[in-house]
Amino acid sequence: MFPTRSTLRRAGVVTGLTAAGVLAAAGSAFAHVTVHPESYAKGATDGVLTFRVPNEEDTASTTKVQVFLPTDHPVLGVLVTPEEGWTAKVTTTKLKTPIKTDDGTITDAVSEITWSGGRIRSGEYEDFDVAFGQLPDDTGQLAFKTLQTYSDGNVVRWIETPQAGQEEPENPAPTLKLVAAPAPTSAKSGAGQAVSASASDSTARGLGIAGLVVGVLGLGAAAFVLVRARGSRSSS
Length: 236
Description:
Radius of gyration: 35 Å
Number of helices: 2
Strand content: 35-45%
Helix content: 25-40%
Strand order of the largest sheet: 6-7-4-10-11
Distance between the termini: 100 Å
Largest sheet: 5 strands, antiparallel
Number of strands: 12
Order of helices and strands: HEEEEEEEEEEEEH
């Protein structure tokens, strides 16, 4: 009796600690500044990045958010969506290596966006949307280092870049994964599939007709044999 109760009690404690750990991890992750979606195709065009900024202080509000865009792998054609109560300031910088596009050579890119004048209170978050014209295609990820300023003067620096195979740092920068774009299906391949499907349909129809012909011939032969047999009996 008692050993059983002791075992159940220990199991309950372990379960409770595990649940608490999971909730703590989830809460910690939620407290981070993040970018959404988590991934995009390399070289993707005409999309939107959303920077989600939660308030992790109980006694202060977030009053300023600074997001730094990488310039070694620049994001082109950046536009900021107006957020109610917030003023956005966009800073551009000269690129060390100009980028040639179909629309011409680009020599400048956005390096920083600062939102101020608003307020994110305890237990709340704010989404800041940024549209882009094109993402780079020569890297596997983009880290957007971010500074989060509170009304009490405290500044949280989300600037640590996560490394593959290592634990997440204490103050990770919002990181966007860039993945290979799916290979397009060629028109020739589609045409080949269509021809194959058409040939299969024709074969099936041909076999069906042949089956009907054989069936009709079989019925005709059976009828002939039956009539002949009756004629033989009548003669006898």
